[in-house]
Amino acid sequence: MNRCYFELPARSNRALLCHHRYSNARLININLEKTGDNLPSDSQPIERKHNKEDTMQIKALFVSCTVIMLLFSIPLTSSQAQSDIIEFPELTGLYQVGRVSYDMVDSSRQEIFTADESDIREFSATVFYPAMINENSEQAIYVEGQLIPAIAEETQYPASVWQALQPHSYTNVDVVDGQFPVILFSHGSGIPIEAYTGLLEDLTSHGYIVVGISHSYGTPIVALSDGRMIRMDDASIEVDVLSVWVEDMRFVLDQLQHLNAEDPLLVDHLDLSRIGAM
User: What is the pLDDT of residues 172-192, one digit of tens each?
Assistant: First the structure.
């Protein structure tokens, strides 16, 4: 597992820990430094808070979305039904897809979802990028090994189901030559980034670098590279999650500049003059 540590400029004490590689949307320019500034005068930003009832409803939604994905999003042919592999729908773009994952560690922010005042904000981001592959390239797995038992427990689907899903992305592959516009993707409340894999891979196949953010305590489980798993069930209640997620996205934007300058994989491949969000 390759790991690296980056320090940000002196204006911030934030840091990024990054680890091993896994692997036509209209872009909307955003300015997270001025979130809410463009709202009508009689409007206020919506606060989204979690309580215990929300958590139960979110977990039920997660299971429901899993059922929908398995039954409808990945239609099985007769040969697939008899095999141990469930393949994702074919990509519609021209590029193959690589995947790499990063731990995001924002030491400037206290983790407000826990009672421990020494906790800092940690979450993860998965980057999908146009990739150069060959016959020796290794396909990525749908769910990381350490996540399989936890997700199986959350969804009541056996581990074999998650192991059977085969995405299109590859691990340990280089980025195609050139720069690509960037899409930041923030998952729905309680839905893991893995549930959007088919969508994010397909966007990438059209020539985008897609950054899928996994907001800790906003999705059932977030796995970090050191083996820790952050579970939604451990979150405090009555917390404004929207403001936390906006700060997560702002932090990721900062890190993309750093990755574009220094990361061995992504250096000079991110077109940061064209950034959108979904």
Answer: 999 999 999 999 999 887 788
**For the residues of 238-253, what is the DSSP string, one character each?**
S-BHHHHHHHHHHHHH
Higher pLDDT, 192 or 14: 192
Comparing C-alpha atoms, which of 270, 222, 268 is closest to residue 248?
A: 222
The enclosing H or E element of 104 equals strand 96-110
- Helical pair 52-68 and 148-155, crossing angle rounded to 10 deg: 100
Alpha-carbon distance 179 to 274, whole Å? 10
pTM (predicted TM-score): 0.72
Q: How far apart are CA 208 and CA 201, in angstroms?
A: 10
3 state SS of 188: coil
Per-residue DSSP letters for 77-98? PHHHHTSS-EEPPPP-SS-EEE
Phi (first) and psi of residue 145, to 5 degrees = -55, -45
Query: How far, in Å, are 14, 63, 97, 220, 252 from residue 125 at the CA level?
Result: 16, 22, 16, 15, 8
**Which contiguous run of DSSP H or E holds residue 234?**
none
Residue 262: strand, helix, or coil: helix
Cα separation, 144 vs 153, whole angstroms: 15
**pLDDT of 80 above 70:** no
- Token match 């994010």: residue? 200
